[in-house]
Fold each of these.
Amino acid sequence: MSAAKGRGAAWTDAPKGRGAAWTEERVSAPEGRGVAWTEERGTSDEGRRRLKAPRGRAGTQRARNEQRATREGSALSAPEAHSKHSRALFRRLLPLGGEASRAQAADDVLGAKAARLGRAFAAGLPVLPGWVVPVAEAIAALDAGAAAVRAGRPAAARRAVLSRPLDDGLARELREAAIRLGGRVIVRSSSPLERDGRWSGAFSSVSEVGPDDIATAVRSCWASAFAVDPLERLALCGLPLEALRLGVLLQPEIRMAAGGVARVTAGGDSSTVIVEGIPGHPGPLLSGWADGASARVPLPFSPAGTPSIRDMNPVVPPEGGLQDLIGGGTVAAVARLAAGCYGELGDDTIEWAACDGETWLLQAQRSAPDGADGETRRGPAPRPAVAAGPAARGAPEALRLLAAAGPAGPGHTAQVTAALRAADAHNGQPGSREWMPLLAAVVLAQGRRVPASPAVAGTAAGRLVACRPHERPPGDCRDAILLVDRPLPSLAPLLFGARGVMTRSGAAGSHLAEVARSLGVPMVIGCHPEPVTGPCVAGRDWIAAIDGSTGEAALLAG
């Protein structure tokens, strides 16, 4: 078994040959169970009508999903899960999609990931069955880790969690759950903190876990709360150690043909789904190690305005490239799943996997989660007019004039540099955010363009600081544009004070991009500044500007 640091939804391949045969290894379901399970899932007559509309390929696939989930033996509303025998056997674990998922405080009981998947399961979306270790079960172990941190021994915190054995009752239930899920499971962290996108990719999951290893895997997920990255995010969010709470979700390990991320953009009478993915499991894409490919799938109507969104068959345009890797049918199925999730739950971002001709929902969330004040956080506003407005106050007149000028001509670079130095003297540094949009307009108009692709919307400008993983940045990252090789989750703490991010590789659906999106930090990907900067970016000072909506990027020598 292997831990995947920072890959909250990272799945790995099942043993050779298991992908198509693992359901056959299960004990067959009791007679009549499938019908009862379907009827119990609906919460109203209208809900049942929507769940039971088997029209076309989508309805057929949903019927297959229901049959497979029923065979798993852990479906929340299956009679076996609620039978006297199961209630006697599972007193500590909770079935995915049960009453706890529908409770108002489900995130605090199950963790955000398990709670959202439970609601999706109950809504009829294709979710793999599972069992949940409630958040409360981890409190004693996590308190032991927190005590080590308070004692000034943060490196000993994970050891304190791992060395705390599970009691026999919980260990016995975990082993039985793994057996009922096919004997090979993925153990996924599920924290209440993950309802906030700033925590995307912060905690670990463990794959390829058998019944004899399940207790160790659960403790490994708990111990991941005390890695360097989560502790830094905790401090930057201003939260106490008591906020580190983790549930654990157990689901069957499947052999994935493809996987990735999809995001719904809804507006007016039409909507769009951006599907990103790679062949095989989506872990490398989510953790920043794979670029993947994408496809833009238009929807003919608003997802929130249709009662049968999952029965549609979206047409995949030839642009994008993803359909060449995984097939147009899979792309269309993912778009349909993303739109259905948006319509049922209001979640605009999903992680997905394709296996044996079926498409599964791995995770669902809203890309701009509610903050502590209850207001939805959004990214930066679009680029304003360059020579007017509050953003220009305090900036030298020369800078405002240069912002309105056309493309750089002879002598313009020197003028811009002089204006920036004058602004530096006037405002303290190019970090005066009040006039950052104006600085961005100047650099984008006068600087040398660098090819890039859009990732996270918004405009930003500032000093360029090159960062490498596991190395101390060469300069102060606050109010800077960060240049990184890959969007690795471990870089997330640097984004809390940064203005923007440029990555040489990676995908817009990576965990780090989700952190940037939640913080309102613009981001571009596929950016290689070396033709402008030379091989050593840190050899001189550069002012960078990016537009994450269009993929524009430019540099000026400081």
Amino acid sequence: MSSQIGYLAAHASAGDLQTLASDAAEAKELRRAGLDEEVKAGMAPPVCRICYSEEHEDGMGAFIRPTPCNCAGERSAVHYTCLQRWQTIARQNRQWSAGAVCHACDSPYTVDLVEEGERIPVGILGGTGLVGRALAARLLSHPIFSLGPVLGSSATVGKSLADVWIQKERALQDHYGAALWEAVPCPPGLREITVSSTEELMRSGVKYVVSAIAPSLGHIEDALQAAGIAVFSISPHARQVPRNPLIIPEANGDELLHAIATAAAEDDDPTIPLVKSPNCVTCGTSVVLKALDATYGVVGVSVTTFQALSGRGDAKYDPGLVVGNVYPLAGTVEKTDEYQRKELLRIFPNIVRCAVSAHRVPVQTGHFVDVKCQTRKPVRSVDEVKAVLRAFAPLRGLGLPSMPNAPIVVVDEVGRPRPKQDGNYEGGMSVCVGNVHTNDGFFDVTLSIVINNVVRGAWGAALINMELYDLHVRPLVARAAAKQRAAGGTMSEAMKEIRGFAEAKVTKEGHIKPHWDVLLKWAQAQDEPKTPSTLVAGLEESISKFGVGPWEEDAADVGSPQKPSWVKRQQL
């Protein structure tokens, strides 16, 4: 039995974790006959907890030392090859937690052994800055992406990233004082990383880059884009350029597909648009506003922010402005309130009144935001609003590794949320809401939000956009293009077909769009090459089969999608 299990763990190329687990369970039953006690008593050698073979038995090689999780005793032994295959299969099956967290002790694995070539290297522009450093640490263990070249200024190129990290964190702590700023330790996995130049990144062959540079250096983003690299950016550079989508996946993720399709179908520019994330406050506030807007229809919003010092990155304020003080940002070079207002109005076109007032406060990490909304529909109670927020999960089922199970965490305790206590739900990717009130005589809903500005408000926003693109947008576009090529069509016509499908599913009011699962199921149903006539029939059939959503209520008024122009030509 042990040799069979060991072979499966080591060699299954398209294996299933469920099969592996069931076979391991059979092996465990055999061991219960007495081997457990022998191992505990030291009478038998330890065996791998995945394949139940001994060290070096059946060609399985050595155990990992030290144990890569918190398992102890007989559970502590695991072959390098077994855990590598386990994590690789989990990644292939998009079972992210199975590959990242030990199923026995529920602690994160300290190693990531996904086989070479299974993960996509990602470059970081502005990688020595506060946000870039944090992203580099995350990419050490991301299930899809790996850490590629880390770009810094000319002063840091060639230096150890760990040395730069330690120096910058120490400088921030010395500047603000240890009581306010706690230096973030550098992960051991970054000790061997050397800061790269732009030229080295260009030669590396990476296809994806996350940018966290200052807007004054935006020309570097443009150069990478021109070279055919997909850039996912949190920089204000070119954020308001219409061609560049401004994306919060829960709020307007479909705009990413629309922007890519539009660029491919209509633009003379063959490059992928810069995929932009908004200001850190907008990143978190938009998630909450989308939940309210979908239920009540938000028409007016007032936003007052109290933003942490880390929102400025490694740039340092005069301590007299922010230590034991509140610093209003209106009229300063940061233009924070201006950015936020423009972004909210772009993401939520039905909002007609929007006011923003931004302030910097003596907190290291975690923005506190006071939000007041006016709505089209009546809001009945606080409990109803909390239920709406807790139920909001529009991307559930898409398998995005960085998507939290609960995008919005609602706390009921008086005096919450607070940045220190409520900024790290689900690794900082969830936003926290509390202090909910309704119908105060002027506003229909008022509430407070805490956003982890470094994670959800910065690198996490770019990372989840990149996941959405890589796992869903890019494959969907590729499927459409392959169909068109098979039938003699063009890429432009493929993109128009995607847009036609999406637009045909919008209700006559124009504000409800197809969910991602509908778009993806449609694309998957079209995988096999078909003749033009069966392709059109299949398109209409799949709309009827998979189009389950609120827009179906007015299906009779929407009409059927336009047939692609290449099909019309074939029929003439």
Amino acid sequence: MANPSPEISIIIPTYNEGDNLATVVCDIFAVAVRRGYEVEVIVVDDNSPDGTGREADRLANQFPVTVIHREGKLGLGSAAVEGFARARGHIWGLMDGDRSHPAEVLPELIDPIRQGRCQLVLASRYARGGSVEYWPWHRRALSQVATWLGRLFVRVRDPLSGLLFFERSVVEGIPLHVRGYKIGLEILIKGRYEALIEGPYTFRSREVGHSKLGWSEYLNYLHSLIHHTFYVLSHRAERRGRRRVARREIRRSENQKAPVAERQWGPCPLCEADNAEFLFVKNSYRHARCRLCGLVFVNPMPTAAELDAIYQNPLYFANRNEWTYGYNDYFGEREFYAALFERRVRQCERALGAANGRGRRLLDVGCAAGFLLEVARERGWQVAGVEISRHAASFANERLGGAVRNGTLEQAQFDNDFFDCVVMLDILEHVADPVGLLREAVRVLRPGGLLLLSAPNVRSLSARLAGRRWFHFKRDHVVLFSERTLLRAIDAVGLDCFDLRRNGKMVSLNYLFARLKCYLPALGNFLLATVGRIGLCRRLFYDSWTGELLAFCRKRDETGVDERLP
């Protein structure tokens, strides 16, 4: 019963799994029906004495299952490669046939790839929230040693996981050295992918049958590590060459003249003075500073279509070169943002004189995946969000039940004086008309309501030390404020700023090492590869020296808004 056009191909290597296979296949297709996935399952059986091959043939009459019968026990790695050769889907996945990999986690493995957020998703026993149901102490110890050896090659928590999904382009055309059962590690080392997400799952203990893991498999694993070592060493020059080419392309794009015919020359977005002085060109943007008010902005300004293309790029939230635009791994760094947003929501409640958000409405402008809205809803707020990225808005709505509107704040068309609190964290620098955006936020905010906003400080110590190499001179940042210019914009739209401070963030040492790559790539990579492997480097702490501003503002009862600053 073949599926004529599967989107997803799941390969299940089997040996003596006759009692488990039917449950595994039925669970997969139950999830596929609920989620609307077009799935094919490819069972690769190594001539199992218990009749697993016959059971697979029976299932093929009921479900879209393809069965490959092999002559003997040739190993899981080679079985996976044979399955890849028969797979027709755009997304490929590997699962065990012993029910240790729960089908309930399939949406968390498949959806990020379908949404374009990454090319590979790894289910992890050792990520935060992951676990193993039961292992004897000796197997747990051996697993820890083997995992530590695997981490020498790839920077993930569980490099030996056998449950992973990826785009077919990740491995298509790559020769895989198949010896032993840890083919997942080889895919992580050799695969072509820009973004990877590692999510937690619970590895279930086998209920029926016996484990095939023996000393021969451990020896095969050690042999594969030797092969991986030679592969990494022999391809080091090739990887360095690719990085040199990438850096050369970045420098070339930075020095290119801006496409003036398409972009729009104009006055200062804050005071409308037409006397800006040229600063430099970076990422094809010509940066200038207004001689009257001091605002730094891109001139000529990118068109709305050009900016929208950046935000609709599926890699915007998973960009390894985040100093060009977007985020390194926004969804993977959820714990960073959840901890920070818990702090921000509590600050909003204190500013409003409330113990929680019960009975109050909160709007998050540029809410991304909706992490702040989730925190606020848990604290009793009635929440709404606006997000321009279709990928992020779709992700947020799945978790928040449609509370997020896709588009701009103006397109959302909320009622006047509707919200008690409006949050705009790291938004103003992304828009060509920040005063217009602030004015729209004031319109939907009730008199006396709170507006919380943050923005990079172009006059911060880090900005002055880094110059044009400052992290916030990115393709998605077109307007950059100082304390003086931000306060002018706030005053112009009818807001009173009662607290302006340095904006802090929840970070780890690894986060700071990754940020260091923007300025000293060799040192940043070295620290991540050495010190960054220590668990202490993943611990969160609050850093108030981020080079950004945080402003708490209150809407005046009688606005008296100026048309523009004098």
